[in-house]
Amino acid sequence: MNIFLWLIFGAIVGWVASILTKTRRRGLIRNMVVGIIGSFLGGWIASLFGIGSLQRFTVEGFLIAIGGAVLFIWLLRRL
Q: How far is it, in rounded angstroms, from Cα 1 to Cα 79?
């Protein structure tokens, strides 16, 4: 998957996660970072349970990425 698509995907995932967690708007770059790290976190957890992967753009992968981003935001708030 090309890096440009990862950045767009990360921005969208980070934006949706920030809406779900009711965090104040943090900007495009921060949403990308949260989305990309959250995608990797969600993909890693999903692979441990054998329930999915982030190899292609699918609804399942999108939901896993959002879940990972929400978890990442939650972890950041706890630190």
A: 32
Question: Which residue segment(s) compose the domain that 51 sits in?
Answer: 3-78
CA torsion angle for 32, 44, 17, 62 (degrees, to 10)? Answer: 90
Length of the chain measured in residues: 79
Overall domain count for the chain:
1
Reduced 3-state DSSP string for 21-55: CCCCCCCHHHHHHHHHHHHHHHHHHHHHHCCCCCC
Task: Give this prediction's pTM.
Answer: 0.83
Give 9-43 pLDDT, tens digit per residue. Answer: 888 888 898 888 888 767 788 888 888 888 888 88
- Contact predicate 11/35, CB 8 Å: yes
Token pair in block for residue 6: 């990862």
